[in-house]
Amino acid sequence: MRSRSFRPTPRTAVVALMVGAAFAVGGAKATPADSCDQTITDVQRYCSACWRNARIPADSWSDCTQEVLYRLMNTVPLTKWDRLLQAEGDERREFVRAIDAVKKRSQRSRKYAPLNEDVAERRDRTGVDLVAERREEMNKAAAEVLSYRQKRILEMSIEGYTVQEVADAMRMSPERVSDEKYKAIRKLRRHLGVEA
Question: How far apart are CA 179 and CA 10, in angstroms?
Answer without folding.
Answer: 79
